[in-house]
TrEMBL record:
InterPro entries: DHFR-like_dom_sf, RibDG_C
Domain Bacterial bifunctional deaminase-reductase C-terminal: start-end pairs: 114-177
Highest taxon of the lineage: Bacteria
GO terms, biological process: riboflavin biosynthetic process
One Pfam assignment: RibD_C
GO MF terms held by the record: 5-amino-6-(5-phosphoribosylamino)uracil reductase activity
Protein name as annotated: Dihydrofolate reductase
Length: 194
């Protein structure tokens, strides 16, 4: 079974979007360098960020997101982002009307069922869980192995929290830290009960 990673870009004060669901400058680091991150030619990062992000992206088999993210991105028009094989959408609603049933998106009710499906689809590859409410629920359920944050140098003051509505303490191991252009990459292992 692959590692479960909660991941997202985040403001210095812990938000993944402002009150209007806008990321503002959170993703500026993805266009602030001179090394192509993918074939699109749009994502250009520093060499440090490339060496950190590219191997991670190459390990991802499945991304788990909430219905809110799915709706905001218009389901990536049926094509999972960043070359990922499958997206599992945690939702209480059915797939949208007219949705292509052959698109590699799976609509599942509840985080436990979503994670079971994600593990099945990913095999030994990484299961990525988007930060926010769903990521916080997966963390609270004890199903996250690692937390990765790309911290952007901006303060929002309020907005959508990285850990969603988690209200219980969760200890993390000491971070691995890398600095790129306009970003600080943090990687924490989740501390397990002893």
């Amino acid at each position: 079974m692959g590692t479960v990673v909660m991941y997202g870009s985040v403001s210095a004060d812990g938000f993944i979007a402002d009150e209007n669901d806008q990321p503002g400058p959170l993703f500026d680091w993805l266009t602030s360098g001179d090394v192509p991150l993918d074939e699109s030619g749009v994502l250009m990062v520093s060499q440090t960020s490339y060496e950190y992000i590219r191997p991670y992206w190459d390990q991802i088999g499945v991304t788990v997101v909430g219905r809110h993210v799915f709706d905001l991105t218009d389901g990536w028009e049926g094509t999972p982002p960043s070359g990922i094989d499958h997206v599992v959408v945690v939702t209480h609603r059915p797939q949208p009307d007219g949705w292509d049933p052959n698109a590699p998106f799976h609509f599942v009710d509840g985080v436990e069922a979503a994670m079971a499906m994600a593990h099945e689809l990913a095999g030994d590859r990484t299961v990525e869980v988007a930060a926010g409410d769903v990521g916080g629920q997966v963390l609270a359920a004890g199903l996250v192995d690692e937390v990765r944050m790309d911290v952007a140098p901006v303060v929002f003051g309020s907005g959508k929290r990285y850990f969603g509505s988690v209200n219980a303490q969760q200890l993390l191991e000491d971070p691995e830290v890398l600095q790129g252009n306009r970003v600080l990459h943090l990687r924490y292992r989740v501390q397990r009960a002893r």
